[in-house]
Amino acid sequence: MPMIKIVTDSSAALTDEEIQKYDISVVPLQVTIDDENYLEGVDITREAFFKKMETEKKLPTSSQPAVINFYDAYENILNRYPSAQILSIHMSLGLSGTGQTAAAVAKDFPGKVTFLDSHSIDRGLSFQVLTAAKMAEEGKTIPEIEQVLAKIKDQTRIYLSLESLKNLIAGGRISRASGLVGSLLNIKVGIEFIDDSIKTISKGRGEKSINQFFDQVIAGMQKLHKISEIGISHVDAEIKASEMAKRLHNLFPDTPIVKMGTAPIIATHTGIGTLCILYYGE
């Protein structure tokens, strides 16, 4: 049975230890801030990017990785492991053209590279990436892995609070005709990423509305029979993220929780102060 190696992109919220343990190849995405281009995780760390966001007046922008980056990722693996198969798992096609690039390049490696749209992002993407890596180590086939990942996708929920809609609108992720602009531009918003799109759940001018939003999210989590994993991501909101991690740990003491700053390409569209809860369960 051929070895299976996993490729993803830098929007995935993976720790350095996880990447090393499972030998996951991460294709870096590109962000531009202060008129400088950076490759995520190569030229700039997440924390350093947040600091630049705090001082830069012009909003950052993002772009999908160059085609050559995917060729390099696939060829590097196949040069090391000529008989290997590659499962390339990427952020939702509904959010980025990254997956389209990966899928196009994968066609140049027939029978060797399989592309998979995770329909997720951040730690939600990582839930699938890590499960795939573990199953690959166990000797499972790509169809067997895809079947389990489809179940995780259906069970994953992503909720986040934003301090402002400014970045989402500037990045084209919310239409100016959506009814969430104008006087609501600086409103704090609670949203869900579902079915490859953004759904507004709550909006208000103070922290109270956001607290109520997360109370509702957590109440929904408590109704499930089991929470398999929890991710907490943030954009320069370490204190809030730590408080949320502690709260969730008290409620779900047996569930693994990973807290980390989100990827620059996500921070670019959500803005400073964003807090996100991601989980999957049944």
UniProtKB/TrEMBL annotation:
The keyword Membrane does not apply. The keyword ATP-binding does not apply. It holds the Pfam family DegV. It comes from the Bacteria. GO terms for molecular function: lipid binding. PANTHER family: DEGV DOMAIN-CONTAINING PROTEIN DR_1986-RELATED, DEGV DOMAIN-CONTAINING PROTEIN SPR1019. Keywords: Lipid-binding. This is DegV family protein.
